[in-house]
Design goal:
single chain; about 600 residues; alpha/beta; Restriction Endonuclease; 4-stranded mixed sheet; flat
């Protein structure tokens, strides 16, 4: 079985090259491939320093001490503001899998041990260490904490035998419950998250607000609420855009009945906006009230860190649209806003999700909106982001037409449903025709022994990679196009067949050709041709199966033009899970007699 190359590794070399070429010295001897791997390992160490220590790329590049006699430490950097000394070992794994060898990690542990004990003579063979030794000795004496970082470009987690090495150091060099020595491992998932900004979290890092007629609750969760002028709200959107509502269940939907009413209120009754609008709810990591405003009942100036609006995206979008299109004088109106601090929450993530869901129940929320909040959707989008493929899983007015770099939740849902190889695959196929929204149901309908207990979890499997979903969507588009083209050139019964049989044909394409597999993100020219050709072949074979089962019969029509008649419409047939199961079984049995030779990988069980 061939292991799938993680999507996250595809763009990493380019990103590291773009950041550190010219900033890091490069090897001049050895094989080109080895020189490149060496550069990427050192760049990975520098990037970890940049992210964790909060320094510039130039400073991070200067932290590199990699070379002979480095004691397994590839980078070292001191942060004076919090008296923390970072020591990093890095390993670039070209296939995106595995973890650093135990021997290499063991050398890192030995190097850390020498560092912590001040045995700098063990680094005397390394010129970079010798050059920086005086300052490192001083920094080590000042350090309130030493953080050891193992960063590598493998998707696997660090094994226990590696972790035990650093636990031994922690027990030896930490007194009581202090955290003088800490260890952190950063794998490919972590590094990819750094590159796409996932470590920053949703919302705006820091925001200043002035709230009129404010209220202030300090327990149990600090909250400030008050009136925000509409113009100030529009200015916030102009400065920060969609980042303000990235944590919301829904993005701005544009022209809807609700949003039209909001715009009408702004235009005709701005002074009544506070009374006629539900207002905004936001949470933040922490907030600070200006000390000069503590006793001020007229207004309070607050600073919110990591602020995200989780209810009110339609209000925000409508207000922003009005001020963007209107040059008239500013309407004298305010909107109510509530800002909740998560600082004192035991589980801030869970409470944030509760706030998001609960505050949105007052509006009409559909299954799609809650699906967009599921971590599987964000995972698919994040894995593809650096490769230039954008997955639009939230309902948004700015969602572009699907193309070679964009796809939608609807496309991913139907493709993933047809990918299912469980006993419910025929039910999923039928539901696409009659009630595809039911595929988003999160109700637990399967027995406890099932890992995936809802239809949604069965469709969007946790172990299916973003690459597989994107390749499946591409194959789906080819099947739909081929079936549409055949339908346009047909009439009546045959036309109805091509319109309604597409999902069953797609399912069989997945079963026989496995187009979702492969290391490339995009289907190759040969793969595209194979899917298109086999779609027509499979469709015609399915037609003969339908004839054999009596769903359609030939009839000699007037003028010697052959026609067809049906006992049931094809939509009724392909909307039935039982009929889909029978047709799929008969079609696969027919195709098994002449297995197709196609340019797809079939040496693994990757889904």
């Amino acid at each position: 079985m061939t292991a799938e190359i993680p999507v996250e590794i595809l763009e990493l070399p380019k990103k590291l090259r773009a950041i550190f070429t010219g900033k890091l010295a490069e090897a001049v001897s050895g094989k080109p491939q080895d020189r490149e791997t060496n550069f990427l390992s050192r760049a990975l160490a520098a990037y970890a320093i940049h992210k964790l220590a909060g320094c510039s790329f130039e400073e991070a590049a200067e932290s590199i001490v990699d070379g002979g006699g480095d004691g397994g430490i590839d980078a070292i950097f001191y942060v004076a503001s919090n008296a923390t000394l970072f020591a990093v070992q890095s390993k670039y794994l070209t296939n995106g899998r595995g973890e650093p060898e135990l021997k290499e990690v063991g050398s890192f542990k030995a190097g850390l041990e020498n560092l912590l004990q001040g045995k700098f003579e063990n680094f005397k063979l390394n010129s970079e260490w010798q050059k920086r030794r005086p300052e490192i000795e001083v920094q080590l004496k000042k350090a309130g904490q030493v953080r050891a970082i193992l960063v590598y470009s493998g998707i696997n987690l660090v094994s226990d035998d590696r972790l035990s090495l650093f636990e031994d150091l922690r027990q030896r060099f930490c007194s009581g419950e202090d955290n003088y020595f800490e260890f952190q491992s950063c794998n490919l998932t972590t590094v990819h998250g750094w590159l796409i900004g996932a470590d920053i979290g949703p919302g705006v890092p820091q925001l200043e607000l002035k709230l009129l007629k404010p209220g202030w609750v300090t327990k149990p969760y600090e909250t400030v609420f008050g009136l925000l002028p509409l113009k100030d709200l529009a200015d916030l959107y102009a400065q920060h855009g969609k980042r303000l509502v990235v944590a919301n269940i829904r993005a701005y939907k544009g022209s809807t009945d609700v949003n039209t009413q909001i715009l009408t209120t702004i235009q005709k009754e701005p002074h009544h906006f506070f009374y006629l609008n539900n207002g905004l709810t936001a949470y933040c990591e922490r907030l600070e009230v200006n000390n000069l405003d503590r006793a001020n009942a007229e207004f309070k100036r607050i600073t919110a860190y990591g602020l995200a609006i989780v209810n009110g995206a339609q209000t925000l979008g409508s207000v922003a649209e009005f001020f963007n299109q209107t040059l008239a004088s500013t309407p004298d109106g305010n909107v109510l806003i509530k800002v909740i601090s998560l600082q004192r929450c035991e589980d801030d993530r869970a409470f944030a999700e509760t706030i998001t869901r609960s505050t949105n129940f007052q509006n009409q929320i559909g299954l799609r909106d809650f699906v967009a909040q599921d971590e599987q959707q964000a995972r698919i989008a994040n894995q593809l982001l650096l490769s230039g493929i954008t997955y639009h899983y939230k309902d948004d007015v700015d969602t572009p037409t699907p193309d070679e770099t964009n796809f939608t939740l609807d496309e991913a849902t139907t493709a993933s449903a047809c990918l299912a190889r469980s006993s419910d695959c025929d039910d999923f196929c039928a539901r696409i025709l009659v009630n595809r929204r039911s595929l988003w149901s999160m109700d637990e309908i399967y027995p406890p022994e099932n890992l995936s207990r809802s239809r949604y979890a069965q469709v969007f499997r946790a172990d299916r990679s973003a690459r597989a979903v994107w390749r499946a969507v591409q194959a789906q588009r080819l099947v739909i196009k081929a079936m549409q083209d055949s339908g346009r050139s047909s009439t009546r019964v045959r036309k109805a067949f091509f319109e309604n049989a597409r999902w069953l044909v797609l399912m069989v394409i997945f079963i026989k050709l496995y187009p979702e597999r492969g290391d490339d993100l995009n289907l190759t020219v040969d793969e595209v041709m194979a899917v298109s050709q086999r779609t027509i072949e499979f469709a015609e074979e399915l037609w003969t199966v339908c004839e054999a089962k009596g769903y359609v019969s030939r009839q000699s029509a007037a003028g010697s033009v052959e026609g067809f008649e049906q006992t049931r419409h094809f939509r009724s047939i392909f909307s039935s899970a039982a009929d889909c199961q029978q047709l799929r079984g008969a079609l696969l049995a027919k195709l098994a007699q002449t297995p197709p030779q196609v340019p797809f990988s079939t040496d693994s069980d990757l889904l």
